Amino acid sequence: MKVRLQGAEELNRVVKNMKDVSVLMPQMRLFLNFLDSMLEEQVRRSRYSYFIVLMTVVPNRSVHFQNFKMNLLTLEIYGVLAERMKSRCKPHLRTLCNSLLRHASHPKIVVRIENYRAVKKLMLAARPNAVLAHMFDHVGDKRSLVRESILNIVMYALLTFPSNEFDLKAIAASVVPTLVDPKRRVRQGSQECVAILAAYMGPTKAAPLIRYETFKLFRQGEKTHKKAKSYYPNPKC
């Protein structure tokens, strides 16, 4: 693990000292896949180390620190790449968004802060609306932490960038269905998102749009309910 940490530090230093990323562009897809595999492995190692801590009397603090350090170094590389590539990152936007979304709900606040820094740099490079469009691809994820993280990123973007950078109607159409999410934290995040959208759009535009999206949502629920009843008819008394 110590060798891996030293390698990550060296890679971080090389990327930061690289003034022009043009030499890396032909192999950027493979490099991003490599970084993504590093993050994925750190997620697995973190879960394993927490399990070890629960099973032992003395926690292995060095393992926690190294996992935490590897996460920070990798996220810093993502931020530097987004900042240096600028508009050239658009072909790799989906890969970048998927990787950053994975750590948006990390238990350590410092990792989440570094993750949001990288997200902000990506939004500056590729426009926030394009980044949110890729984030919304995961709004139907079965994990509530992912859905909550997406809403937090939406709120962060809306409060960071001017409203003319967004397609507010499209964002509202993606956010309103989460108002009836089964998880309380997701519903709370959705209500906060809707409040920010309403403040941006004004009452004349926000109320009809949210009402229409809510109406579509309930109509869809009614159709699902009728379909379920057709499969399970009422028993004879």
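(ticket continues) Second input and output from the same batch:
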Amino acid sequence: MALQDPSSLATSTKSTVLSTAAPNLACTTPASPAMSYLQQEAFSDCLCDASLVAFDLHKCLYGDSSTQEECLVKALKIHFEELRLGLVKASVVLEPLHCRPTPIGPILHGGTSLALAESVAGVASVLLCNCSDHPVGVSVTGNHVSMARLGQKLTLNCSLVYQGSSSHLWNVDIQDEKGVLVSTIRVTNAIIKGKKQ
């Protein structure tokens, strides 16, 4: 049985996603191919579908807390660059907290790769959920295929593989500045149904 390229799977499902999904926190605005930027000042350089300009990325990442207490997602220092229904792009510059020591110098820790992927896939699922629902990660599997070193900028491309009513499957490719694949990761999110508002 031939394996199918994950990007082709994501492409084949995107048309369904774009026509059926209601973006979280922007539920009354129809999806549009036009691109804009998030309205939130802290994320105003994040490109997004025009229907997502009012999306509250801060609340999605840190919850309702106005004090921004320390949490893993904040510590990871993920920079979100693009939010679309079925596709999220982000980047991170590797700092000591992302790395582990080796005889050749600090390199990206495999656990960091998984945490980055699950965080980005979580945001991607929130964008596809109804306003009352929320995703939780239930499975993360990754293959680390090359090293990344302290100080390198990595790009995370998160694309939808499958969208069901109770789960989403995402493929997250982490690449270095030259486009070399560092890790490829699959994330499954269960969708917890909330009360209808």
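Agent notes: Residues 46 and 81 are 5 Å apart (CA to CA). Residues 24-192 form a domain with the Thiol Ester Dehydrase; Chain A fold (CATH 3.10.129.10). Closing as not reproducible unless the customer responds.
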